[in-house]
Amino acid sequence: MEDNNSRIPRTLPVLHLSNMVMFPYLLMPLVVTDEESKLVIDHALSHDKLIAFFLDHGSDAEARQLEKIGTAVTILRMLRNQDGSISLLLQGVSRIRMQKTTQIEPFLMVDVEVIAEPAEDDMEVQAYRTIALELLDKVSQESSLLNREMIAGLSNIKQSGRVADIIAGNIELQIHDRQKILELVDLKQRFKYLNNCLAELIRQMRLENHIRSNIQLEMNEDQRRYYLREQLDAIRRELGETDEVSKEILKWTELIEKNDLPDYVREVAKDELERLSVMQPASSEYGVIRNYLDWIVNLPWRKYSKDRMDLKKIESILQRDHYGLEKPKERILEYIAVKKLKGRLKGPILCFVGPPGTGKTSIGKSVANALKRKFIRMSLGGIHDEAEIRGHRRTYIGAMPGKIITEIKRQGTANPVFMLDEIDKLGRDFRGDPASALLEVLDPEQNNSFVDNYINLPFDLSEVMFITTANSLDTIPPALLDRMEVIEFSSYLEYDKIAIAKNYLIPKEKENNGLTGQPVTLYKSALEELIRYYIREAGVRNLQRRIGSIFRKVAREVAFGVEGPWRISAQDIQKYLGPRKFSHELANRKAEIGIATGLAWTSYGGEILFCEATRMPGKGAVILTGLLGEVMKESARIALSYLKAHHEQYKINPKDFSTYDIHVHFPAGAVPKDGPSAGITLTTALASLFMQAKVKHDVAMTGEVTLQGRVLPIGGLKEKILAARRAGIKKLIIPEENRETIADFEEQILAGMDITFVSDVAEVLKKVILPPSK
Questions:
Q1: DSSP secondary structure string for all residues of 652-706
Q2: Across residues 64-91, what is the average pLDDT?
Q3: DSSP structure string for 285-298
Q4: Which helix (H) or strand (E) holds 86?
Q5: 578 near 553, Cβ under 8 Å?
Q6: Comparing 371 with 428, which gets the higher pLDDT?
Q7: What CA dihedral angle connects 610, 614, 619 and 624, to 10 degrees?
Q8: Closest-CA residue to 414 (of 299, 335, 267)
Q9: Three-state SS for 542?
Q10: What's the rounded Cα separation, in Å, for the pair 470 and 361?
Q11: Lowest mean per-residue pLDDT among 147-161, 366-380, 739-753
Q12: Is the pLDDT score of 430 beyond 80?
């Protein structure tokens, strides 16, 4: 022993660990991974293979708290692993006392003093030794972890101090108890402290065995795992270690306390966390609960963005971003004004209805920008599954919340502007009816407690501003339509399109095509040419495409090195886009027998509709073509019955109805057509056919007809008038009962239009049927 102690140098490199105490003469395997420890090992191997081993209470290298008493250790074996770590077999040599630090970087080196092992071995020490061996034997009886042969071998060791160190190094002791035994040089004190530790260990083991004996012997696999995990957790807690599961539980606990959750949500989160804490990570249910916790803890239950309350600023932003659209802008300003006066206010549920390309979707983004709210857009077109709206129940594999909750979590606020696009395109099938699921979302009286199937907790949607868009109201279920405030978007007039093109489309397309700063000018005459002869639409989407097409051709010229300026007028459009696609005077036909001009409404805006009727010898059969719906076919039968009943008034030979077959056709046969508003158009075409009198070609008409010849009101009038303007028709025939409807239209729509209001078919025929030629 003296030889060993005498060869220990005064200065040693230090290996310090927070969870291990080495005893003299004991072997200990160890794996080191940190760079400082690797440097210590390399230094020791290049010198005398000796290192100083001290217990470290510090949390990191910057805050070392080393014990003063440690062990001089020699390296018996060393192996460098492929992952960069070093495996060691160490053996304690002697107790040492730290005197002073001689080096800090790159690793710690200290001066040490060797503590000699006491030589005294009197009767009292022998008695303590005997008691220690007896206690150790009792420990081995309570636990199978100790080797009985090792215990028997301790009796043959002469040095009592070595016996005490071997016992302390081979039984389960707290780290501070091990350090205490290491520090006790006096053998009597060392054995006394060791015996107390052994006695406490025996009491603890007997208590554990007593508890085990009371547990049901036939423990199933899950119970056995749970019990072992509990023991493992207890050991880790005693060692100051935490595993990944414990860290995750701690993380969720902190999030639940930190986030502003309603009480009912916090209670559910705590219950789920308690279930998670007793589960094995490999369990499939573990992942399900973890995902659920992630959703309910991170949802913005009470997180609201602050609305901009400056009405003038909001108005200026809306005016800057969009031309026209006064009704939706006015409704947004009203909402903010009321909220400013009242404080908290439920979000409005608006439905923007109009033809494509009229700005329904884009104004939603502008509204969110004006109010300083997050914007969410969700397309409903083609959705058939109710779960897309309300989510799946957690019992299904791969279950997720619906898109409403998903998008709100993604944006992180409980009061975004939420646009539900194309609500009229919702489908339904065996998977459910999404429109019915939207009833709860879009009902101001119910959506303060919207329950997603996955979350299964009420979420407050009352602060959300919902905006839906549609091209037509016909396919929206009445119950859903009743919950929304409908705002109509009408077709743009020519001067509207020119203003939008100048202020928005041309600058945007210049930027998109890399022409910003280039001398490119699109004159008003060019825009008029485009609008009249190259596009036929209610909105401005195709106008933007045509402008983009022109600018791409200009960009090509710029890329080839052609120098401008480019001043594009009406005469230049044909060079860029080819010949005209439409005739402006679409109704510029000559007056003919059996052809009348009608007006139709579609979800894409108003349209001109021609009704053609001809006859041939036969037996009075009626043929209807042009992909007509049932209502339109009935209108044709009503028109024919009316003319039969009033043949004398119109000087029609009654025999003609039975000696001729009649064929009625509406061109564009691939396009479905339906509705009652073609009633007077059909009656006019058939009357012209039987009277053999021509119909004025420059008059368009719309109105439902009855068997008595009365003309009933129709819908979609604004779009129909705008369609007539686009086609160059100035004379219109409209039901008398629509006179009040027209009173609300803008002056620009009615300017230059010659409108005749009628209440009877006779007035229509008198107005449009030319006298028969002699």
A1: --TTHHHHEEEEEE-S-TTS-B--GGGHHHHHHHHHHHHHT-EE-TTEEE--EE-
A2: 86
A3: HHHHHHHHHHHHHH
A4: strand 86-103
A5: no
A6: 371
A7: -20
A8: 299
A9: helix
A10: 10
A11: 147-161
A12: no
Which residues, in sequence order, are bridge partners of residue 734?
A: 757
Q: What is the mean pLDDT of residues 207-219?
A: 65
b/e map of 174-201 (b: 16 or more CB within 10 Å)? ebebbbbbbbbeebbebbbbbbebbeeb
Please state the rounded mean pLDDT for residues 551-566: 86
Q: What is the CA radius of gyration of the chain?
A: 46
Total-model pTM: 0.58
Which residues are registered as beta bridge partners of 599?
608
Strands 11-17 and 109-115: antiparallel
Share of the chain above pLDDT 70, in %: 92
First to last CA, the chain: 145
pLDDT score, position 431: 64
Distance CA 734, CA 749 (A): 15
> By 3-state DSSP, what share of the chain in percent is helix, strand and coil, each rounded to 5?
45, 20, 35
Most distant CA atoms of the chain, gap in Å: 153
Amino acid at 285: E
**Helix H or strand E encompassing 420:** strand 417-421
- Find the catalytic residue in 497, 718, 720, 731: 720
Q: Annotate 153-166 with b (16+ C-beta within 10 A) or e (fewer).
A: ebeeeeebbbbbbb
Please calculate the CA angle 462-468-473 and round it to the nearest 5 degrees. Answer: 125
The active-site residue out of 635, 677, 718, 731 is 677
Q: Which of 580, 556, 564 is nearest to 521 (CA)?
A: 564
342 part of the active site? no
Query: What confidence tier does 683 reach under pLDDT thresholds 50, 70, 90?
Result: very high
Residue 60 has pLDDT above 70, yes or no: no
Per-residue pLDDT of 186-200, as tens digits, reads 888 888 888 888 888
CA atoms within 13 A on the CB side of 392: 10
| pLDDT at site 380 | 84
Indicate the pLDDT class of residue 541, thresholds 50, 70 and 90: confident
Q: Which residue has the tokens 């499939």?
A: 284
Provide the angle, in degrees to the nearest 10, between the axes of the packed helices 123-142 and 160-170.
20
Kindly report, residue by residue over 254-286, the tens digit of the pLDDT: 888 888 888 888 888 888 888 887 777 777 788
What pLDDT, on a 0 to 100 scale, did the predictor assign at position 241?
Answer: 46
Q: Is the pLDDT of residue 621 over 50?
A: yes
Tell me: the pLDDT tens digits for 395-406? 888 788 888 888
Q: Where are the beta strands (DSSP E) in 578-621?
A: 592-593, 595-602, 605-617
CA-CA distances (angstroms) from residue 216 to 211, 349, 558, 616?
A: 10, 61, 88, 100
Cα separations in angstroms, 696 against 687, 745, 752: 13, 27, 19
Report the candidate in 587, 588, 594, 591 with the shortest Cα–Cα distance to residue 770.
Answer: 591
pLDDT of residue 773: 62
Q: Is 362 a catalytic residue?
A: no
Question: What is the Cα–Cα distance from 772 to 770, expressed in whole angstroms?
Answer: 6
Which residues make Cβ contacts (< 8 Å) with residue 279, sequence separation at least 6?
285, 286, 289
Whole-number Å distance between alpha carbons of 712 and 706: 8
> CB 682: neighbour CB atoms within 10 A?
26
Q: How confident is the model over 753-760, as a mean pLDDT? A: 90
Question: Length of the chain, please?
Answer: 774
**With contact defined as beta carbons under 8 Å apart, do 125 and 188 qualify?**
yes
pLDDT digits (tens, 9 = 90+) for 306-361: 888 778 888 888 888 888 778 888 888 888 888 778 776 777 788 888 888 888 88
Write out the H or E segment, with its range, that includes residue 255: helix 244-258
Residue 699: phi, psi to the nearest 5?
A: -120, 130
Half-sphere exposure of residue 31: CA atoms within 13 angstroms, side-chain side: 7
